[in-house]
Design a protein that fits this description.
Length: 155
């Protein structure tokens, strides 16, 4: 009887481990597939719309305590597409010295999203909320500082 319980316990542990690994691979595959779909449209505006959708998904995941939902959206944010070279040149030209602040804020967004993903994998809601606050404030700060300067230049 003990041997049967031990065998069942081991089988359950292996199943849970394989499921967790599969979910992580699936999340990466989903992100890669979405990025491939957006490769044709890697201008700033489509990237921003995708980030907005991912922010909404994190928010929804927080309210329903769906950690995998939070994790996948945060992962996509931390691995979002780069702005295409043509638009990046326009951005650099229009921001001048302020491009450093633009890049700094983008790095904060990447870092906080990665921290949210990690916290979601560990079911740490308080850490998710703390990092989400910083992430959201960084997005709003970037919009406040740069949107009006870039909006008409990138259309």
């Amino acid at each position: 009887m003990k041997r049967v319980k031990l065998t069942i316990t081991i089988m359950v542990m292996v199943f849970v481990s394989l499921t967790a690994m599969s979910c992580k691979d699936s999340k990466k595959e989903q992100s890669n597939a979405q990025n491939k779909q957006l490769t044709e449209s890697d201008e700033l505006l489509p990237i921003m719309y995708r980030l907005m959708a991912d922010m909404k998904q994190i928010n929804e995941g927080v309210f329903i305590e769906n950690y995998p939902m939070i994790d996948s959206a945060a992962y996509r944010i931390s691995h979002h597409l780069e702005i295409n070279p043509g638009q990046m040149q326009i951005i650099k030209k229009n921001l001048g010295e302020d491009i450093q602040e633009f890049v700094r804020i983008d790095m904060v967004v990447h870092d906080r999203a990665a921290a949210i993903s990690k916290a979601a994998q560990q079911n740490k809601m308080s850490e998710i909320l703390s990092q989400y606050d910083i992430l959201q404030q960084s997005c709003v700060n970037c919009h406040n500082q740069f949107r009006s300067r870039l909006r008409n230049k990138l259309q």
